[in-house]
Amino acid sequence: MASGHYDCVIIGAGPAGLSAALNLARARKRVLVVDSNRPRNAATMISHGFITRDGVPPHELRRIAREELALYPSVEVLQRAAVLTVSPLDSADSDASAERFVIEISGATPSAARVVQSRSIVVATGLRETLPALPSIRAYYGMSLFSCVACDGYEQRDQPLALIGETDDLLERALLVAQWTNALTVFTNGVAPLSVADEAVLAAHGIRLDRRAIDDLEGERGAISAVRMADGERVPVTGGFVRPLWHPVVDFLDGFALATDERGHLTTDRDGRTSAPGIYAAGDVAAPGPQQLIVAAGAGARVAAVITHDLLGVTTAH
C-alpha cells in the first residue's frame, strides 16, 4: 500500500478541485488530487457561462485542466479513486506547518490503495443527486431537461417549458425559469407543498401550476415532447428543468462533526474554512450558491490562496 506526504489533499476533481490544485501548484505546494471520475454533470453535453469556454462540454474542461496540471511536477492526480476516511494524525499539533491528517484512499485495484498524510484538506466532492422517480427521466436529463437554470435557461428561451420537482422551493425556481419563457408549467407530481398564495404568485407571472401526479415523460432521442399525467392527459413541452434532491458527499468526514447547514452542506467562512482547522471546502459541497462551473472554479482558486497563507501562518491579502 503506497504512502506519501502532501501539503494538501484535494478530494474531487471538478472545477473547484482542479482550480484549487492549479493555484496550489503555482504556489509550489505538493498536492494530491483524488477523484472518482464520476462527475454529477456527466449527462450534460454542453456547459455555458464559463468565460473563454462557453459551449465546451464539461468533460472537455476537465481534460484541459488535467493536461495543465500535468505540467506541474508537484501535483499528482488519482483517477477512479475514492477517499474512504480522513482522520486526525495522532501526533498532530497546532503548528500549521505540521501534517494534521491521515487519508485512506481506495484505488481502481487493491494494489492502488494508499494511505497518505497531509497538512490540509480541500473537500470539493460536490453533490449526489436524486431525480424525481419518473421512469424515463434519465433519457432526457442533460439533453432537454436540466437542473441549473442559470446554466441552460438561455438555450431554452421562448419555448414551452416544464419545471418538475417535489420540494418546497419550486416557487422561487419557477420565477427564475420564467425569465426565459412565458410558457412555463410547474409540475408538483402531487408532492411539492405549494400553497394557495404561491399559486396566486405563479398565476400573476403567467405561470401555470399542475398539481397532478405524473405518469412519465414522452419524447425521442433525448428531446422531451410532453409530460404525461397519471390521468392520461399529455401536456406538450419542448424542454424544461427538474429540481433534484441534492446530497453533499462528505461521508468520509464523519469523524470530525463538521458544521453543516440544514441540508447537509458544509458551512464555511468567506474564505472556505470549515469548522475544523485545516479542512476547507469549495464548490457545490459547501453552503449553496449558484451551481455554475465558473463559480466553483473561482471558489477553488480562492481557497487555494487562503491555504497558501494559512500554511505559512500569514494573513496578508496578496
Description:
It is a single chain. It is elongated and about 65 Å long. Helix 1 runs parallel beside helix 2 and helix 1 (15-26) packs parallel to helix 6 (293-312). The model has no long low-confidence stretch (mean pLDDT 90). It has a 5-stranded parallel β-sheet, with helices on one face. A 5-stranded parallel β-sheet has the order 10-17-11-12-13, covered by helices on one side. The chain has helices at 15-26, 58-69, 149-152, 170-177, 196-204, 293-312, and strands spanning 2-6, 8-11, 31-34, 75-78, 82-88, 101-106, 114-118, 121-123, 127-130, 145-146, 161-164, 184-187, 208-210, 214-220, 223-229, 234-236, 239-242, 245-248, 279-281. It is of the alpha/beta class and 318 residues long. It has 2 domains: 2-128 and 245-312, FAD/NAD(P)-binding domain (3-Layer(bba) Sandwich); 132-242, FAD/NAD(P)-binding domain, CATH 3.50.50.60. The two termini are 39 Å apart. Residues 6-300 form the FAD/NAD(P)-binding domain. Pfam families: Pyr_redox_2 (PF07992). It comes from Microterricola gilva. Keywords: Flavoprotein, Oxidoreductase.
Amino-to-carboxy terminus distance: 39 Å
Strand content: 25-35%
CATH architecture of the largest domain: 3-Layer(bba) Sandwich
Largest sheet: 5 strands, parallel
Which topology of the largest domain does CATH recognise?
FAD/NAD(P)-binding domain
- The number of helical segments is 6
> Helicity, in percent?
10-25%
pLDDT averaged over residues: 90
Overall 3D geometry?
elongated
CATH superfamily placement of the largest domain: FAD/NAD(P)-binding domain
Keywords: Flavoprotein, Oxidoreductase
Domain FAD/NAD(P)-binding: 6-300
Protein name: Thioredoxin reductase
Catalytic activity: [thioredoxin]-dithiol + NADP(+) = [thioredoxin]-disulfide + NADPH + H(+)
